[in-house]
Amino acid sequence: MKPDMVEQVVGSAREILSRRIVNEQILPRELKEELDEKFGHNWQVVVTSGQFWAWFTHLAGYCVVFKLQRYCF
């Protein structure tokens, strides 16, 4: 993913986390809705507060994994 797009994705997640006490059940939905609005549909958002392993398919240049606070996105 291009660095400017990564900054926007991480910034969106950071903004959602700063709004209020985080409701972990709606955190991925809020981020997905924001990313769909900014960049178009078909975003898949997974948020976990621990370790995770994943095996998935994605378009080249359209995948980012990062950690903010205690959450992995």
UniProtKB/TrEMBL annotation:
SUPFAM superfamilies in alphabetical order: DLC (SSF54648)
One Pfam short name: Dynein_light
InterPro entries: DLC_sf, Dynein_light_chain_typ-1/2
Superkingdom of the organism of origin: Eukaryota
GO CC annotation terms, alphabetical: dynein complex
GO BP, sorted A to Z: microtubule-based process
Coiled coil: none
Protein name: Dynein light chain
Organism (species): Macrostomum lignano
Organismal lineage: Eukaryota, Metazoa, Spiralia, Lophotrochozoa, Platyhelminthes
